[in-house]
């Protein structure tokens, strides 16, 4: 198969393997840390978690990225990306240790959230940098395959990290602090892995020497406007980002619903709820893996917009058919489907942004991409909090999400036809 052959070629590229190692270690640490937060906030026996409480936690941890994201983009287009991976992961290792200490002591909940926010805030720099750096280690002909393998492998690593966290929790008799320390060790290993890459290899391109941090921050507003203007001129990338934002919103709403179902509707204990959540994560990870294998072929067959339309359309049809049962087995099947749909759409969007956006703007645009992701997820959680009952069963949420998927699918089909018409009208055709 061409995809398998291209994957083999990619894995023979030394710098690609090294960048992939940084991603795998970093995102596995993210998975460990996120599961530690979820078990502390949602599955602790002493907490009576509601959908509103989940939405509030997501808002506290994710909304500040709306402010951090633009700064991250401007700085990523000025700082050596290798250094972002090195110092970012070192900083997260230290902050994760601080979070573990807070979990061992009786501290106000806001202090715990502040510590967690600091750890996850650095994640914006690291993930945006990884996406922006990928074209520096892979040629353009194999960028679609690289986008299938690299982010998907990272997502699978995060899922594996979540599994490690659950295993560590069992081994340490429910110690969230021990789980967080495991994440700190993985962050440290990711920082060390980044040292295998040359300092200037990952860019960005520069026509002048690095500006000082204060100077970079002083031009953030102008840099953001320039990034937005550049994106506005790249309509294909802008449209893909719009569709991906809707798909992310749908994924967020269903995630909150699944958490409530695992916590209350399908289990009578914390351990049973966590086991079901682990199965759902595994099913979703399987969908991510299939998306990585199928997407390069699907883009070649349907085109980028066409493949996103297929993904969203399949979700619009199958999500209500499976979700309205509110039973574990159909919902686990839905988790697999939505993993495939979401990751397939993300691979396509990543590739569209990377090929349509100039390298000097790529960091800013990927940071804006992250902002859209987080705002969509929090908005979805807020909507779910208003609509979900205590046990998580909501017909309204399932049907609303299906309508949104259908809307995204129809929009991508329309934009695909517009693009094809524009190509046919070009001189010489």
Structure, explained:
- The chain is globular, with a radius of gyration of 21 Å.
- The relative contact order is 0.15.
- It has helices spanning 2-11, 14-41, 51-62, 65-76, 81-104, 109-133, 143-171, 176-194, 213-218, 220-233, 235-265, 270-302, 304-323, 328-356, 359-387, 395-424.
- It has a single domain, classed as MFS general substrate transporter like domains (Growth Hormone, Chain: A, Up-down Bundle).
- The chain has 16 helices and no strands.
- The chain is mainly alpha-helical and 429 residues long.
- According to DSSP, the number of beta strands is 0
Structural class: mainly alpha
First-residue to last-residue Cα separation: 32 Å
Low-confidence stretches: none
- The helix-strand sequence is HHHHHHHHHHHHHHHH
- By CATH, the architecture is named Up-down Bundle
Mean pLDDT: 83
Q: How large, in whole angstroms, is the Cα Rg?
A: 21 Å
Helix content: over 70%
Short overview:
The chain has one domain: Growth Hormone, Chain: A, CATH 1.20.1250.20. It is 82% helix and 0% strand. The chain is built from 16 helices and no strands.
Topology:
Blueprint: H1 2-11, H2 14-41, H3 51-62, H4 65-76, H5 81-104, H6 109-133, H7 143-171, H8 176-194, H9 213-218, H10 220-233, H11 235-265, H12 270-302, H13 304-323, H14 328-356, H15 359-387, H16 395-424
């Amino acid at each position: 198969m061409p995809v398998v052959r291209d994957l083999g070629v990619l894995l023979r590229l030394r710098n690609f393997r090294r960048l992939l190692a940084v991603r795998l270690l970093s995102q596995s640490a993210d998975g460990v840390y996120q599961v530690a937060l979820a078990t502390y906030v949602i599955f602790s026996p002493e907490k009576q978690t509601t959908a509103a409480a989940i939405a509030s936690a997501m808002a506290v941890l994710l909304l500040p990225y709306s402010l951090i994201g633009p700064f991250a983009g401007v700085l990523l287009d000025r700082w050596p990306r290798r250094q972002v991976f090195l110092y970012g992961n070192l900083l997260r290792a230290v902050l994760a240790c601080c979070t573990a200490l807070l979990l061992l002591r009786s501290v106000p909940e806001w202090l715990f959230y502040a510590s967690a926010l600091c750890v996850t805030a650095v994640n914006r720099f690291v993930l945006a940098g990884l996406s922006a750096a990928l074209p520096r280690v892979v040629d353009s002909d194999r960028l679609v395959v690289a986008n299938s393998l690299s982010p998907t492998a990272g997502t699978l690593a995060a899922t594996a990290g979540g599994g490690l966290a659950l295993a560590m929790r069992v081994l340490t008799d429910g110690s969230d602090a021990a789980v967080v320390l495991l994440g700190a060790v993985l962050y440290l290993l990711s920082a060390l892995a980044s040292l295998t890459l040359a300092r200037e290899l990952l860019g960005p391109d520069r026509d002048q020497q690095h500006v000082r941090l204060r100077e970079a921050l002083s031009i953030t507003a102008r840099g953001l406007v320039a990034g937005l203007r550049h994106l506005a001129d790249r309509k294909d990338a802008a449209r893909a980002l719009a569709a991906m934002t809707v798909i992310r919103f749908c994924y967020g709403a269903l995630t909150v619903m699944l958490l409530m179902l695992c916590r209350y509707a399908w289990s009578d204990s914390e351990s049973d709820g966590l086991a079901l959540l682990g199965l759902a994560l595994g099913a979703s990870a399987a969908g991510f893996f299939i998306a990585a294998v199928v997407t390069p072929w699907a883009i070649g067959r349907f085109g980028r917009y066409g493949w996103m339309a297929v993904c969203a359309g399949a979700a619009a049809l199958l999500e209500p058919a499976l979700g309205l049962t509110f039973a574990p087995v159909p919902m686990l099947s839905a988790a697999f489907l939505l993993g495939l749909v979401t990751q397939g759409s993300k691979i396509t969007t990543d590739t569209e942004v990377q090929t349509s956006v100039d390298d000097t703007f790529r960091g800013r645009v990927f940071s804006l991409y992250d902002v859209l992701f987080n705002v969509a997820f929090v908005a979805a959680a807020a909507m779910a909090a208003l609509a979900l009952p205590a046990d998580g069963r909501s017909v309204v949420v399932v049907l609303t999400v299906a309508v949104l998927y259908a809307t995204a699918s129809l929009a991508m089909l329309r934009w695909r036809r517009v693009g094809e018409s524009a190509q046919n009208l070009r001189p010489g055709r």
